[in-house]
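Subject: Sanity check before I submit

Could someone independently write out the structure tokens for this chain? I want to compare against mine line by line before I put it in a report. The sequence has 236 residues.
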Amino acid sequence: MSTVKVWSRFTAHKPGGVIVKLRIQDLSEHQHEELLDFFEKYFICDENFLKGSGIYKSKDAKEEFRFIFSHLLKDNKMHSVVCCPDEGSGPQPIVGFSGMYLETEEHSKVVEESQIQTPEVKKLFHILTTANDLFIATEKLGISKYYSGRGIVVHPDYRGLGIAKEIVKGRRVISKEHGAQATGAWMTSLGTQIAAERDRWEVVYQMPFKKFGEMVDIDFDAAPPILKMMVARVAE
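---
Independent answer below. Compare away.
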């Protein structure tokens, strides 16, 4: 059985002084279904773009999103890592996730919008397309290879332990190893914005979240004041 690459190991302190050991590692194939379940519980109802689409309210939309993301996980341009307890060599539960998709000057689509069935997933693609049209990284940054963020999520019981900070730091390392000149993402929560700021990511585009909501006709009621496109350039 092949082993997955571990990108980092770190310790964190939970309330009460409990020390937990954690690691960031590549997603293994046998973890795909667990990750998709993890998304359904903690991602689609919490991340602001996904929450705004209303996918979490519809059984059909949740199934369609799961189907699309399951194919994305198998795409060779997608790089997925998970955070797990670092307790021995056996299987450990997923407590965090980060995904990046390698973009080049030749743009490709994971799925054609005409293939989308549910109104909630159509709404999500409208949100993502509108955001991406505001800042096309390869053009604006003048680069040919760029890792675009495809989500960060942390289990509620493990939030506040520095996992998001470790994930964004790891994105820079992974990008360098794979020859990308930068990595970036629309940071849609205060937590990811702060984590990126601490790793010295730069804000290359920003706008009031309320204004963006007006552009896509959605009230992002739980979003931070500012929607930020943040980028980490990779030193050669």
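---
OP: Matches mine. For the report I'm noting this point. The chain has eight helices and eight strands.
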